Records
---
Amino acid sequence: MKVAVVGPAYPYRGGIAHYTSLLASHLAAQHHTRLYGFERQYPNWLFPGRSQLDPSPAPLVDIDTRRWLIPWWPISWRRVMRDWIAWQPDRIVMQWWVPFMAPMTAWLLSRARRMGIHSTLICHNVLPHERSRIDTFLGRLALTRADRLIVHTTAERDRARELLPNASIEVSPLPTYAQFRSSAWTRESALAKLNLDGNVLLFFGLVRPYKGLIDLIDALPKVLHEIDVKLLVVGEIWGDGDRYRSRVNELNLQPHVQFVDRYVSNDEAAMYFAAADLVVLPYREATGSAVVQLAFGLGRPVVATRAGGMGDVVEDGVTGYLVEPQDVEGLSAAIIRFFREDRAVAFRAAVEHRLGRFSWDRLIEIIER
């Protein structure tokens, strides 16, 4: 089967870029696959971060990418379409995560439908976390053009069903990011590199208000009353970073909190996860989270909230603990319980045992079907 995969990929950064590359590489093991990426992804004025590019010296997986697309430049869309006309793919698999891509996505899917090519849209966020009416309009514009939608949580399935009652929608768990594993890092070598010892908590990924970092900071004093811990906040802060640092200062947590306010390379990510005892995801709102699958892929248990689809992935008391969103007391209690009851070994064993549940094979089987 010939499969055309469309989405962000290296050298652009982020979890969806990693996802697109991993998906294309797994498909390529069984099918003739072409990956169509971006020549330019966002105009600089629209992107809130410091750089759109991945600082990693090499991609997570090595796969050829046709870096042709510019979302606001229709001539680039036509270049992809001409390649499809010549190559005649059997399937189009596109990534959907932000309404800015709606005109390009809708146009490509409409042309694929006219050519009789079956299209699947993988929806990472059916609608944005912070959305407006125009986002709903743009989402419907793009999603109605696909023959089928794949989402990664039941919460996103319900959201898609509200938007498109008659759509064909399938749920497949977000696959593992175990490819981040690196034999270069043991816990001892990672702690030595970071000049750390003792118990380590990790908050990883872009820092945005809906991810609830402020709740984790507020939970730390109670945790520290029972357990000595260090919190690593690793990820570029979007918005007001002083809000978090000021709260750390107000609570006199400076010796216990370290900010790494930047997007880190793949190898650095593996190092930080190797150093961590526990990954904490105190999200106030969520669709799914690649950070959970990154933690599990690297053998680390989590404490997460029940926001969005977290409860579909984290088995409470088995691979981590679940608490309610914005429940600072519950968050601190779960962290304390993890260390007091010495659950690290049991939770890590459970995480490893269940990795097959999040294999890429399940997603590929749905695409093939």
---
Amino acid sequence: MDYTELVFTLVTNDDFTQDILIQDLSDIGFESFEEIALGFNAYINRTEFNESVLKEVLNKYSSFTVSYQINEVDTVNWNIEWEKNYQPVTIGDQVYIRASFHEHKPEFPLQLLIEPKMAFGTGHHDTTYLMAEYLLEFDITGKKVLDMGCGSGILAILAEKRGAAYVLAVDIDEVCTASTRENAHLNNCGNIFVQKGDIGSLGLQQFDFILANINRNILLAHLDRYASMLNREGILLISGFYEQPDLEIIAARAVELGFKFMYHRERNKWAAAKFYK
């Protein structure tokens, strides 16, 4: 597959703003990113690159200078490229997320084996880290869990390893659902069921835990459904948004729907929040 490489140069010292830009680029089809000295490289399937759409995104960043250079990239073996750049992720002294080409580390009680094929969903993003930290707090033995927007399946796999009896992993992206199935198989998971679709495709199913690592607008649109799908005394864990100004907006809406806001976590300005029904 042939790719287009864009070399972005940013005149800013704000890593948070660069993080937001990378997120926006992923929403318009960019698949992987590589940090460089003064910015980052971004890669997109050559047939999907639309410079007009890119310029619309960059118009949001008029407060600082961002420039880019376009390069055409010959067909490469992206699995080999990932092996060169993908690093394991540790969460405290409990979780070790690695690829098959990394050394096994038995000192971590929870080992997650991930086939790294996506720029997001490999465990490196702050929101995934925050959600995984939450899962380590709870005894979810025998519980029924929904992982909404499952990505590569990291949270679903961790939920099963923490004792969940049933995990439904849902995503609108077929690449994500295929990746979750593959990673669930790699981890010998037998309680994870994967479904392609959105919140409207889930019917009247009920859950003890709902995990949603998406973005602010989708979370706000789905909160009423989460309220109806969560069992009494159930836990809602959400992330994919920023501490300011998103947390206050989301928490206010959740409280309107009957949730009790417990507390939140923050990492590099990203936030995750816990709600109780």
